[in-house]
Amino acid sequence: MSELKTIGIILNGVTGRMGTNQHLVRSIVAIREQGGVELSDGSRVMPDPILTGRNEAKLKALADEYGIENYSTDLDATLASDRYEIFFDASGTPYRIGFLEKAIAAGKHIYCEKPIAVDSKAAFDIAEVAEKAGVKNGTVQDKLWLPGILAFKKLKEEGFFGEILSVRGEFGYWVFTGHDEAQPAQRPSWNYRNEDGGGMIIDMHCHWRYVIDNLFGEVTEVFTHKATHIPERIAEDGKPYKCTADDSAYALFKTADNVICQFNSSWNVRVRRDDLLTMQVDGTKGSAIVGLRKCWAQSKDQTPRPVWNPDVDSPIDYYAGWDVVDPGPCDNAFKVQWEMFIQHVVEGADFPWTLREGAKGVVLAEKSLESHETGSWVKV
Ligand SMILES: NC(=O)c1ccc[n+]([C@@H]2O[C@H](COP(=O)([O-])OP(=O)(O)OC[C@H]3O[C@@H](n4cnc5c(N)ncnc54)[C@H](O)[C@@H]3O)[C@@H](O)[C@H]2O)c1
Questions:
Q1: pLDDT tens digit string along 259-281?
Q2: pLDDT tens for residues 103-155?
Q3: Residue 326, Cβ neighbours under 10 Å: how many?
């Protein structure tokens, strides 16, 4: 039997929510437990991670809990080591570029969370720096591997929709303000402060960019209205803070395939829909409700024939006549992309989700903000 190859990976900023849950536990630890990533020749490569960050106690606790041998608060020394080929960053958005610059200078391949920067110039600059240095690079675009979206793609490839006309995305849920002690906030406070890289548009329009580009055609134009509906929330230290970032965005996107996409994104809505993200896709031959984990479809033949009459309860159950679509085999979306990035680094497998693609998400966020400021459609 051939010797198991390893690949050294620096995991930076993984004591945070995303870093711990999705990248460390659900991706790297899960990949180690399954015996590594399979390569095209049938051999396997095993991640050899080191956790880096500022707080030694937190890093140690995380490393102990998940059986990771190495951790360090000395990022420079870690970057200087040949043992590690990949640098991954899930730290706070404002720190990303600084970390990526250092890691590229140290010759590491780069993988990181979105948004890759808070402005598009910085985002394209870092993509160019990585390309010029000849390092492989990637941005997390996890939604593309969600079961609901995989099921949608299957339907689309089968021609189920005919011509796709429009998409209505509803995203969000109620994030508690923390004013009531019994109902503490369930997201970090930086998300509601502009100066710390927060804001619905910079957060979610980065996602909507690659979702729309990949599923409904390249985004060509945007119209957005943003709002900060809740002006004050309570921080982790129990003190009130002013919300300087948008907590909601109401957006329309046009695509090169002539699909009109409308996305409402809000942290101030109570959920009465099938999932925290749903996209209703309507086409000439059929429609789908695409959730995170499930996708429901209704064909032309199953479509009911409503007649307007508000004087009686609807004789039609509008939730009937939708079939759940089987997405085929699925794994954690972050893990799937991690495996592909590792295959890309080790054996040059395709990986189109580069820093440059990540920068496009930042462009859409920027154009959305411009649309809000000018009250007009903005070309992307
Ligand atoms: N792909 C997704 O669906 C998704 C979802 C949520 C967040 N994110 C992105 O992930 C990133 C982290 O978000 P989160 O919700 O996990 O936030 P978080 O506040 O829970 O975590 C941020 C982490 O960065 C660390 N950090 C902050 N400043 C640092 C510094 N100077 N040096 C080293 N580490 C530092 C913090 O200690 C913490 O570990 C953000 O960029 C966010 O946009 C992506």
A1: 999 999 999 999 999 999 999 99
A2: 999 999 999 999 999 999 999 999 999 999 999 999 999 999 999 999 999 99
A3: 13
The answer to whether the CB of 195 falls within 8 A of the CB of 218 is no
Closest ligand 1 atom number to CA of residue 96: 41
- Name residue 248's beta-bridge partners: 227, 266
Q: Which domains does the chain have, with CATH numbers?
A: 5-139+333-349 (3.40.50.720), 144-332+362-379 (3.30.360.10)
20 CB near ligand 1 (under 6 Å): no
From 11, 12, 14, 17, the mutation candidate for ligand 1 (largest count of ligand atoms within 8 A of CB) is 17
- What distances in angstroms separate CA 206 from CA 28, 82, 167, 198, 367, one per listed residue? 24, 33, 17, 13, 11
- Residue 288, SS3 per DSSP: strand
